[in-house]
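Tutorial handout. Part one gives the primary structure; part two gives the three-dimensional structure as tokens.
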Amino acid sequence: MTKSVTVLMGGTSAERDVSLVSGAACVKALREAGYETNCFDVSSDIRALINALDPKPDVVFNALHGRYGEDGRIQGVLDLLGIPYTGSGVLASAAAMDKQRAKALFGARGIPCPDGRVMTMDEIDACTDLEPPYVVKPNDEGSSVGVYIVRPGDNRFATGDWPYGDQALVETFIPGRELTVAVMGDRALGVTELRPTNGFYDYEAKYTDGRTEHLCPAPVSEKIAELAMEYAVAAHRTLGCRGVTRTDFRYDDTQSEPGGIYMLELNTQPGMTPLSTVPEQAAHTGMPFGELVTWMVENAACDA
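Part two.
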């Protein structure tokens, strides 16, 4: 019997446009794989979502990114409805979205992360010990949304221009290179180095063609590649993640080899766009996009 799949996409977060691209790619691949596939552009209207899932599909493919789609809230709705869905459950999703809390859990497992603390805008304004370079970013956004790097010689961080609430995560800046690892189930797929043309892997660099060079496999030592994959799998397990996740790292090789690797965050709803690293790493292992989304559907679950 053919499985029915509803792809949730769009949403109301800052990553809405990327989610629409991810969702469209997944819809196309799932239809080509033989699934009876529908899609729904999620809004803040929960009743509309519940109506769209009646009758219940066999599986929901969650292609949402950012708040509401990635922070455990949509997962809670699907749990209550008893519909299996792709990706992680409520607790893992909520924990991963709270960057500082997730870092505390990772640190307890021996995974190195940049030093940092959550501060209010007033605390940042009053603080006299923030020595550049340092990073300011939302504690609960994804895809490098709202990330600022304050470098030596820059003016102080302008808190009055901050649109992401009254708090921010302030972290030590780690120099070096951007690495990312996809985890599928219980195994790491590989390591990709990302080299943005503007020197910073921000939201625009992630999702604009030609703005970032992807090197897969990453040109790093075997030791660093193994560490990155080991840490990514450990982080996935620490939060109790399901399905596919992506873990981002900074690799500081500016002092001497082999250098140090630091985990930045774990993404429970990684992008599935033509520029995304998860499909890229899967393809490098010999798994085309259609097989990847099929695996995600066949491994969907819920906590009902």
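Part three, for discussion. The mean pLDDT is 92. Residues 4-87 form a domain with the Rossmann fold fold (CATH 3.40.50.20).
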